[in-house]
Design a protein that fits this description.
191 residues, two-stranded antiparallel sheet
């Protein structure tokens, strides 16, 4: 398999604060998922106004995360994400990283809930091909790192910003892999 393009490494605390804004995270996630779209398209997808999306897209552009591209009709130019994904590093590297992780987690939960709420109108083959699995693993930190790397290597070739050979019937799918130490309600790790 060909070498996959790298994710953009994000280590700047101010950029992490900017990305911790829920609408900016939703906009960037949307553009990473679907490719170039106008501010109006984005507004429909993320439940905001076109003017609000346009303002936040300009903020993301200041960080080099998105850029305007030529449109097909010459009136309104779409925006596109500049990267194939973001690498935020370890969670123990600051409060900004934790705030950002929380924002992205809420967005993933929002997308999952939208899928569940729309299940009665989704084509049956998309309902049956979806998965919402949970696992309770017993692993070492080295095994967890290896497992996360293996999942990433398996999934990344299918990401919208990388894959160029998707069949015509392919649609945008949200997928996430979460793996972390299980903490009980008393604040201690499960044993």
């Amino acid at each position: 398999m060909a070498e996959l393009p790298p994710r953009r490494r994000v280590r700047d605390a101010e950029l992490m604060k900017a990305l911790a804004h829920p609408l900016r995270s939703a906009l960037l996630g949307y553009l990473l998922s679907v490719g170039p779209r106008t501010a109006s398209d984005c507004a429909t997808a993320v439940d905001s106004s076109a003017s609000n999306c346009s303002w936040h897209l300009r903020q993301l552009a200041q960080w080099g995360l998105v850029e305007r591209v030529e449109g097909t009709d010459g009136r309104e130019r779409p925006w596109r994400a500049n990267d194939v994904g973001l690498d935020f590093g370890d969670l123990d590297e600051g409060a900004e990283r934790l705030a950002l992780a929380g924002t992205w987690l809420r967005e993933a939960e929002t997308l999952a809930q939208r899928f569940i709420d729309s299940s009665d109108v989704i084509e049956p083959e998309w309902r049956t091909s979806a998965a919402m699995n949970t696992y309770a693993l017993r692993v070492t930190t080295a095994e967890l790192e290896e497992l996360n790397a293996a999942v990433d290597a398996l999934v990344r070739p299918y990401t919208g910003t990388i894959r160029k050979d998707a069949p015509p019937e392919a649609k945008v799918v949200h997928a996430d892999w979460r793996s972390f130490l299980r903490i009980d309600a008393d604040g201690r790790p499960s044993s």
